[in-house]
Description:
The chain is an alpha/beta fold.
Amino acid sequence: MRYGTVIWDLDGTLLDTLQDLSDAVNHALRTCGMPERRLDEVRQFVGNGVGMLMRRAVPSGVANPRFEECFAAFRAYYLHHSQDHTHLYPGIQETLQALHQMGVRMAVVSNKLQAGVDQLYHTWFEDVIEVAIGERPELKRKPAPDMVSQALKELGVRADEAVYVGDSEVDVQTARNSGLPCISVLWGFRDRCVLEQAGATCFIDQPKDIIHIIQDT
């Protein structure tokens, strides 16, 4: 095999989480008497963690005197509603099972809070993916390489054995900073032109395409 390890992004790559994130954002904004955001706006806000998501969603960001109250409302709501509408993208389950049966080692690396990552991991992935890394105090968020390095360490594999798979410009940068080749998916939260502007060069239209890349020698 060309690669024995796959490091996956989570939101927009494995799971369509956009509606639940949008619902949580708008619940928090309503709670604080702020204008709500459209789904397409939230789509553009995600990718750098929930802190940045809320800084982009709240009018004037952290300068807003009610920012922390709004952020707290988001976290409390999302903790209990992170799977109301969230679902696997078509073909992901079959692809993960196939890679697992091939002996490919896998990890999830996400800028989502670790508690949120854990919830989704235990629901969808713990039988096929070994490691799930979310935002935690001791690790810098993507696009810094820290989360990927931690995932490789926990898997016990070298970087030159791994490929990174994600849907956003943050993922392209993360792969570059981690010294990993990047596969950019076209079913997620960003379109191809955004990814190309970020430097993406390898694209797949459907999850099963990654199997051919993994096997390509």
